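SUBJECT: A protein chain and its fold
Encoding: whole-number codes for local backbone shapes
Chain under study, with its fold:
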Amino acid sequence: MRVATRPVQGVLARRLQLRFACQSQAAQAKSDAEAAHCKACGTCVNDWKLTCGSCNHIVAPPSSAGPFDVFGLPARFALDGPALQSAHKRMQMRAHPDRFAPGAGGSRLEQAEAEAASAALSSAFRVLESPWSRAHALLLQRGRDPLAENAGTARSGVDAALLMEVMEAREVIDSRPADPEQLKQIVDAATSRLSVAAEELGVAFATAEEAEAAGDDAAATAALERAEALVVEAQYRQRIKDQAEAAAEAAQDRR
């Protein structure tokens, strides 16, 4: 006796179609939720360009937008600094809240959106203009946070010589009265090392990006771990530099 399989196959096919349709709808719903929405006409703005493509109303970027997304840049460490500054200035002029004030032909709704857009632009620019915060943002995108309190590998691998250098610098900074010449030496040494480390950071990310493109996971991991170590080192050195500069200013004020 033959068993009729076609009806069963038809049922399975319909179930699969429904499943795929539900998955597609869920993915679209997630995409819409993460996209910006025009407060004026309700249009879903997937490709954020500061203004709504339907009604030209100012639109703040979605909360899911990262610093690279805000400026429409690829998530890479190397970037054109002057071009970033120019884009930031141009976009801030377009989104300036005063342009959308009710007395200037705008509305409270538009002004609120402009304020949110301006704040997002400023925040993204601050992240991208510094090599250290830019590197941290890229590491976060890869699920790595060397500055987190529970970060293990990056912090546990801090060079012993660096820790000793930091301790010695702290002794000079905390001494009363602090020696201005020694404070200057600390600031100069930290500034010089941060400059060199920034170049090393660029090499580490270039190596990681090349390895990722080639599918070399081991090389990419090694390069990213090097980048993490440099970010942690920079945090130590920047803190000591700031503290030494503050101590030097305080010593100058006491004179």
Observations:
- Residues 217-254 form the longest helix (38 residues).
- The domain at 22-129 is CATH 1.10.287.110 (Helix Hairpins).
